[in-house]
Design goal:
The protein has eight helices and ten strands. The protein is α+β, with helices and mostly antiparallel strands. Helix 3 links the parallel strand 1 and strand 2.
Length: 216
């Protein structure tokens, strides 16, 4: 069933990684590259309830849809109390699963759909527009340029590694080379310069990238 679900989700344009062991699944979740989780309760190594609890303790906020053959109310309550956002019992219709995932995705992206600001720049998610507040100059970004700035702003000043950005933007199992990150960093810097922003993307040697705003 898991393999069938993976194929269905890929057809719906989701990027999917599949883990058959609970411990492997939790380790993957700790990479913080996933936007949503479909989690079976009955797993070897660590069950779904334990994975959800551990993920929430570690600050992982990705929405979790719990799958189980158990339909009793107490089991549903246990799943939600463990940290799951929604609960689906087997057997289920594929249409219902996809609808639940779309709902969770909209809920998860609620904050990311809002305008993002940092220093003297503003990101508009609907139009993928970068603007500078000091001169009202704006430019449209490519999807990957937008996501680079989105992750840097959402990182609250943290240094993001090249590896993390590659996984977030190109996917966990993507064959994209890490120099793709450097290429798109160059593109994004040019867009920042084009709008006249004082906000800059700085490379921290041997570590990664961060946003800096040095107002003079």
């Amino acid at each position: 069933m898991a393999q069938a679900l993976c194929e269905i989700l890929k057809l719906e344009n989701y990027e999917v990684d599949h883990f058959t062991d609970g411990l492997d699944g939790l380790e993957a979740l700790e990479s913080c590259i996933y936007d949503m989780v479909v989690l079976d309760v009955m797993l070897p190594g660590m069950n779904g309830y334990e994975i959800a609890k551990a993920a929430r303790r570690k600050g992982i906020t990705a929405p979790i849809l719990m799958l189980t053959a158990k339909a009793e109310l107490d089991d549903k309550v246990a799943g939600l109390d463990s940290g799951a956002d929604d609960y689906l019992t087997k057997p289920f219709m594929t249409k219902e699963l996809l609808a639940r995932l779309r709902a969770l995705s909209r809920r998860a992206l609620g904050t990311l759909d809002q305008t993002l600001t940092f220093g003297d720049i503003v990101l508009e998610p609907g139009s993928l527009t970068l603007s500078c507040v000091t001169n009202s100059q704006s430019v449209r970004l490519s999807d990957k340029e937008y996501r680079i700035l989105e992750y840097l702003i959402s990182g609250n000043g943290q240094i993001l590694t090249r590896e993390l950005l590659a996984e977030k933007i190109w996917g966990f199992e993507s064959e994209a080379e890490y120099n793709n990150v450097e290429v798109y960093m160059s593109f994004t810097r040019k867009k920042l310069a084009f709008v006249g922003a004082k906000t800059e993307i700085k490379a921290v040697r041997g570590v990664g990238y961060e946003l800096r705003y040095e107002h003079v």
